[in-house]
Every structure is written in structure tokens, then in C-alpha cells.
Amino acid sequence: MKIIKSVKEMQQLAAAEKATGKSIGFVPTMGYLHEGHLSLLKKAKAENESVILSIFVNPLQFGRGEDLDAYPRDFEHDKELAESEGANFLFYPPVEEMYPAKPSVTASVNDRTDVLCGKSRPGHFDGVATVLAKLFNITQPDRVYFGLKDAQQVAVVEGLVADFCFPFQIRPVDTVREGDGLAKSSRNVYLSDKERTEAPELYKSLLLAKSLIESGERNSKRIIEAVEQHLQETCSGVVDYIELYSYPDLKPVENLSGRIIIAMAVKFSKARLIDNIIMEINE
């Protein structure tokens, strides 16, 4: 595995790979890798001849009150995991390489951002879209891999790729979970022992919603109320939101049909966890 810190060198290497007929799978991350990230690498390796993993903690997507410096980092650990999963290139640019000057042009995301996590993080997805547009042009991928744990991000990226006519596929990958159902996340390490025993209730409450829908319930308000009651009875965390929308356009639906997402965020003492399920209602 080759480690690259230069934008120009990464572009040249990606172009050289494509010139030999190799397909490129790209996994963009902010590092502190866990099994969820590794599932993306596995998928990329299975579907492409060459795999690029990027690690870049993007300052543009951190808003007021969000501590960029406190974001967890462990490059040596990440490097070992990336190499063990067969990544061919690890793109690890410093901030001054990605943003050598204040950007004269940035992306503005106009849809799919005023709900779920985007509602409380204005400008966050503008920063995500801006850095991804740069990374896509640097790595020149054929397929790009994102985890569905952050389903809103996947929806925003799908819009970005469609609107800007990027010539590659977005490949969403299912959420990786612990044995008890808790979604894998770098934030899980901040849970107390008691909170860790409660955290799987997030997924259980989503499965309750799925069961209600499969039993014929179509009223979104009643489904959300059932999820909230389950969490209140089983979990000490504070519910930030429980929302139900069409997917990927993230629009309200009163009587459910088609592809939908049920998503939530719950605040514990030192960690805010998100989870969701996406399902198809065919009637």
C-alpha cells in the first residue's frame, strides 16, 4: 500500500491506474477506522482492481460549537487496517494541501438537508459536498462507497453526483452492527457501561417500527410514537429526533408507501448516536 499526501501525485497515480484499464474503487473517510469502514473496503476490493482510501478530517464540515481538534485520530492504526484489507493507496493529505487558500468556490446543498442531522448542523453538508467534489476529481473513481448508517449523507451525495454529472457509481453499503444490534461507530467508545447496555435499544426500536409497518400500520405519526415510547422505557439517552421520510428525497409521508427511512438520533452523556432502517413498502 502506497501512502500519498500530495493532490497532484494522487491524481497522477489514479490516472496511471485508469490508463492500464484498472477500475478504481474509492472509500472516503475521516479516519479512526472501525468495522463499518472495513466493510466498505471489502466491497470496494471485491468490485475493483484498485482501491483508494482517503483519510481527511475536513474542517469545512465542522460548524460553530463543534470541536474539530477533538475529532478522534489514530493514523497508525488506520494505516494497518487499510493495508490489511488490501487498499492499494492511502490518500492522507494535510489541510493546507486540500485548501491551500480560502476556497473561492464551494458547494451549496439545497435539498435533503433540512431534516434529520442536517437540521441542527447548518452548512455541514455544504462542507461535505465541497470536499467530496474535490476528492472525486483527485481520485477519479469508477465506484465510490458509503455506509448507510449515515443515510442522509448518502442521499445528499447521490444528489451531488447526479446534479454535477460525475461519471461513476455510488455504492451504498449496509450498516455494520455489533452482535447485539448496535451500529458500529467511533462514538461508541464514549458510552458508559450502563449506556452501552442501553444503546442496542435504538435498533430494537427501529425493528419495532418495521414490524408495525409489516403488520399493516401506515400512519407515520403512530409509528414514531411507538418508537419514542420504546426508547423512553428502555434507554436513559435523550431523543434528539425520530423522523420518517421517503428515501432518498427525504420528504414527509403521511400514509406510507414506496421506499422509506426511519431514522433517529439519541444523546447520551458523551456520545450522540444515530441509526436508521430503510425499507420498501410494496402494495
UniProtKB/TrEMBL annotation:
Q: Which residues form the active site?
A: 37
CDD domains for the chain? PanC (cd00560)
Keyword ATP-binding in the entry? The reply is: yes
List where the protein spans the membrane: none
| GO MF entries | ATP binding; pantoate-beta-alanine ligase activity
- Residues binding (R)-pantoate are 61, 153
Any one cellular-component term (Gene Ontology): cytosol
Q: Where does beta-alanine bind?
A: 61
Q: What class of enzyme is it?
A: ligase
Additional remarks: The reaction proceeds by a bi uni uni bi ping pong mechanism.
Q: What is this protein called?
A: Pantothenate synthetase
Species name: Mesobacillus zeae
Lineage here is: Bacteria, Bacillati, Bacillota, Bacilli, Bacillales
Gene expressing this chain: panC
